């Protein structure tokens, strides 16, 4: 098979990104007809149909989707080669695939994505909002943002980019219903503790004791949830005591919807960690987004949620 013209590949990708031959051609300085002929030439060389065409829409075939993904990899490799000669000067392009914790992603990451997309018009972003710990490499993510989960996989690089205080809290209705609030760690054994748990992990509560050592709390756990947002909602509903980071509950504490429990106890901080596959050079699309997060969050120690 003759070698494919690289320009035809770029035209094909521009058509896919734009969603039409007209817009894709314009992005490459071509007419609709020239863009269409380039895609036809590419399909002829490959011996496979890449696009399903109707009078109104275009969609990728299975073969087209695979080829488009490989095209993104080629462009990322070009950027990596440029970065190797000029520091991290390569321009971000292609698709950035993120997996982020649900509540943190919506409250903190989404506003940063708005800035990122405005700054780099050649970037697309796909985000999975979930508290489930995905296999980053197997699931094809470029970057994961986790709360307090460093890399145990040697194929991954981890970096702490921000730290938030965590606080024990409960609703006024729960505290009123259960009489005396806890006055020391051991008192938690008589209370309902709202614990984060899923198939891969179960949150343990620990606090720094008087001698500086860490003490595990022995709380009663009748309700376990796999979402920090759901734990917050359960606490607001009076279902128990929760241990949650400031970015999620600061507004509720200020408004009196939640009250801090055992405020003198020092709990583990919630560390915000980025995880990405270990590579000699980091693709510009990943590097620039991590830099943006560090710039925005690196000196932050708390962030409030103003309303439920």
From TrEMBL:
Pfam families: HTH_1, LysR_substrate. CDD domains: PBP2_CrgA_like (cd08422). The keyword DNA-binding applies. InterPro entries: LysR-type_TF_proteobact-type, LysR_HTH_N, LysR_subst-bd, WH-like_DNA-bd_sf, WH_DNA-bd_sf. The keyword Flavoprotein does not apply. Residues 4-61 form the HTH lysR-type domain. Keywords: DNA-binding, Transcription, Transcription regulation. SUPFAM superfamilies: Periplasmic binding protein-like II, Winged helix' DNA-binding domain. One of its GO terms (molecular function) is DNA binding. Belongs to the LysR transcriptional regulatory family. PANTHER family: HTH-TYPE TRANSCRIPTIONAL ACTIVATOR TTDR-RELATED, HTH-TYPE TRANSCRIPTIONAL REGULATOR. Transcriptional regulator of the ttuABCDE tartrate utilization operon. This is HTH-type transcriptional regulator TtuA.
């Amino acid at each position: 098979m003759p070698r494919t013209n690289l320009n035809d590949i770029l035209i094909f990708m521009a058509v896919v990104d734009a969603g039409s031959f007209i817009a894709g051609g314009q992005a490459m300085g071509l007419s609709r007809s020239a863009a269409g002929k380039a895609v036809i030439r590419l399909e002829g060389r490959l011996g496979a149909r890449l696009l399903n065409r109707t009078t109104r829409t275009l969609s990728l075939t299975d073969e087209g989707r695979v080829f488009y993904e490989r095209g993104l990899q080629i462009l990322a490799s070009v950027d990596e080669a440029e970065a190797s000669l000029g520091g991290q000067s390569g321009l971000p392009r292609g698709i950035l695939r993120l997996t982020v914790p649900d509540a943190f992603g919506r409250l903190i990451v989404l506003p940063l994505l708005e800035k990122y997309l405005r700054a780099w018009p050649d970037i697309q972003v796909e985000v999975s909002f979930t508290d489930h710990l995905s296999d980053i490499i197997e699931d094809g993510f470029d970057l994961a943002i986790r709360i307090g989960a460093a890399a145990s996989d040697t194929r991954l690089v981890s970096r702490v980019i921000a730290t938030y205080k965590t606080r024990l809290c409960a609703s006024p209705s729960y505290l009123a219903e259960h009489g005396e609030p806890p006055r020391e760690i051991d008192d938690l054994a008589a209370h309902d503790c709202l614990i984060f748990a899923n198939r891969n992990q179960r949150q343990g509560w620990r606090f720094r004791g008087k001698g500086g050592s860490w003490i595990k709390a022995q709380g009663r756990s009748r309700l376990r949830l796999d979402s920090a947002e759901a734990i917050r909602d359960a606490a607001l509903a009076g279902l128990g005591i929760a241990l949650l980071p400031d970015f999620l509950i600061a507004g509720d504490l200020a408004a009196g919807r939640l009250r801090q429990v055992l405020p003198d106890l020092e709990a583990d901080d919630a560390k915000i960690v980025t995880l990405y596959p270990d590579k000699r050079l980091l693709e510009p699309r990943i590097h620039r987004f991590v830099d943006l997060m560090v710039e925005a969050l690196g000196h932050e120690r708390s962030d409030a949620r103003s309303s439920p």
